[in-house]
């Protein structure tokens, strides 16, 4: 106790050791003499921190649960344990301290509650902040205050504040939302008399009952989850099964794995005059993985080659008119400038190509004869 003489505030930032009875008595006496204590926890509560400080807190109506506070859906912050609470104020003293009395007291402050646990609060303590309507557990206390001056006529009495998340006051989260305002509220309540709790809200806080999530895995292994548990009557009026006698319908002796039949099995060898010898290893026989090859009795069929692709056809030569073919042929010779061939050679080649396309005379390579035949056609046409 001499160590705490002259100390106005003692802060426990998630204690990770067991307290002795002497230490509890020292803290209890320190609070009775007017000292203030702030206790901060983290997710998992006492089970995670391996401490027993709940033994002291329960004397003041506060207990930290060994659970986790989670946000049920994503909003602003990615991790589900970084819970954004917008409607978690359950005592009007917070709104009065912040000067926001005209606003809705539930939503007078927004804060992030990271990696924390919920509380159980009873008189003489009073909850200040809750998890709101979005985080789980739903609307459960996250921060609670205890002031001994309400329950004693003495002028000087101590105070106690418990918050389920010590991460809220760390450098990483202190500037998130209005977490710094939460810090001001905590220390002003513990050190000064600027915050006076609303007695109506303290006596009847708007919090929900603590409900645990059922173990679905364990319940699914029971037969009761598969059968209707209401009383069913047969024609004689007797109850077929109910929640009390449903286990009697299950016979666990029908299927079991044991050696109870081993003596009878050994005696059967003598009764049947069968020698009782150890099992011998039977050499395995392996089949061929591939069948034997045989000669084919008929020639193998070969697949015919497919037709050429449409891009390989000269569509202009097939679908084009005679005039367009002659025009293309003439343009090809006019655009060709070759020093190796003379003009006469080009004319002869042009006449030869025209004869092949129009088929004036079949199988004739003499250009003069082709011209003579063309002029004879013209002369006969005029006559």
Automatic annotation (TrEMBL):
A GO CC term assigned to this protein in UniProt: centriole
Domain (IFT52 GIFT): residue spans on this chain: 2-203
Transmembrane segments: none
Record domain IFT52 central: where: 219-308
Record Pfam families: IFT52_central, IFT52_GIFT
Domain of life per record: Eukaryota
InterPro entries membership: IFT52 (IPR039975), IFT52_central (IPR055460), IFT52_GIFT (IPR055458)
GO BP annotations, alphabetical order: cilium assembly; intraciliary transport
Record's protein name: Intraflagellar transport protein 52 homolog isoform X2
Organism: Sipha flava
């Amino acid at each position: 106790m001499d160590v705490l003489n002259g100390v106005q505030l003692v802060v426990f930032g998630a204690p990770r050791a067991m307290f002795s009875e002497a230490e509890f008595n020292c803290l209890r006496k320190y609070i009775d003499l007017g000292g203030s204590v702030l206790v901060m926890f983290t997710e998992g509560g006492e089970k995670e921190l391996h401490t027993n400080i709940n033994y002291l807190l329960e004397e003041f109506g506060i207990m930290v649960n060994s659970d986790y506070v989670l946000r049920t859906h994503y909003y602003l912050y990615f991790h589900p344990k970084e819970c954004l609470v917008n409607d978690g104020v359950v005592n009007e003293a917070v709104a009065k301290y912040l000067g926001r009395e005209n606003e809705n007291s539930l939503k007078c402050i927004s804060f992030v509650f990271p990696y924390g646990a919920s509380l159980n609060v009873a008189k003489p303590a009073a909850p200040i902040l809750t998890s709101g309507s979005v985080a789980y557990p739903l609307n459960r206390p996250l921060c609670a205050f205890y002031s001994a001056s309400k329950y004693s006529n003495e002028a000087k009495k101590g105070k106690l504040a418990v918050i389920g998340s010590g991460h809220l006051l760390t450098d990483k989260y202190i500037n998130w939302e209005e977490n710094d305002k939460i810090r001001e509220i905590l220390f002003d309540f513990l050190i000064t008399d600027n915050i006076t709790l609303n007695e109506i809200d303290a006596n009847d806080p708007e919090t929900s009952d603590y409900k645990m999530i059922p173990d679905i895995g364990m319940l699914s292994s029971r037969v009761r989850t598969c059968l209707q548990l209401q009383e069913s009557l047969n024609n004689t009026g007797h109850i077929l099964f109910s929640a009390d006698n449903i286990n009697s319908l299950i016979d666990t002796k029908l299927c079991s794995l044991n050696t109870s039949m081993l003596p009878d099995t050994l005696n059967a060898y003598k009764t049947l005059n069968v020698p009782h010898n150890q099992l011998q290893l039977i050499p395995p026989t392996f089949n061929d993985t591939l069948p034997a090859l045989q000669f084919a009795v008929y020639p193998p069929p070969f697949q015919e080659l497919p037709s050429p692709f449409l891009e390989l056809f000269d569509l202009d030569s097939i679908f084009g008119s005679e005039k367009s073919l002659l025009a293309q042929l003439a343009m090809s010779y006019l655009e060709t400038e070759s020093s190796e061939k003379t003009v006469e050679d080009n004319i002869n080649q042009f006449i030869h190509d025209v004869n092949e396309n129009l088929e004036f005379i079949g199988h004739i390579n003499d250009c003069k004869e082709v011209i003579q035949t063309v002029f004879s056609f013209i002369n006969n046409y005029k006559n």
